[in-house]
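Narrative summary of target 7.
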Amino acid sequence: MTLFDDDTAATDDRICVLNLQLGTASAAMTPAMAHAGIEALSTTLRDPDIHVIVLTGSAEQFCLGPQESSHALQAAQDEASFIDALHDWLLALRDSDKPIIAAVEGQASGAGLALALACDLIVAARSAQFLLPMAGEIAGRHAGALWLAAQRLPRAALAELCLPDNGLSAERAHTLGLACRLTDPGMALHMALQLARSLAQHTPAELGGVKQHMALAGGRPLDEVLAGERRRWLRHRALAPTLGRS
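Modeled conformation, tokenized:
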């Protein structure tokens, strides 16, 4: 994975654009893509000057996930390394303390869909498609895409995504809240960068704090959430006179 070579990405040094395609014509997930992906993302997450990350594919496709023919002949140890790198990459995307925006053109399918769903926000071209073929799920090649989709979609919409000859159009994904922005074909990266520039005005601490609160919000019982709010409210009130004098 390399930094996306595009003049629009250079307009704000606080934004890093990562390109899934590695300069190749194929949109299939490959071992090289997975290993380079986790390396590039790790480097970007350590950079204190980067506030926001945009993940994009080519102008035609986002990512199709691993294809059986592309890795069927790999040695077992290479296959295991591929799987581990892909899973580490996915978890790093999901757990990033920096906002990550997926700019989706064409298909996001299987593990490619998982990468998009692991991002905080999805900007989709109106021609984009979100697909989850069950053959890949049964074979274990989807990198948690079904689990991620189940966290964000109602059951009936999940069935739309998974059942044969279905999938979600960009319009449908937007209606369901899966995609936060729709744009004309070829403009997903442009719109994602606009959104990233708005977010990049805030400090990494602010953005990371928002993500931390979001992560905690859905994983605890309501009574625990309210108790935590009560503690913060009273602590802030106690500190208010001191803050006012500073």
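The two ends are 46 Å apart (CA to CA).
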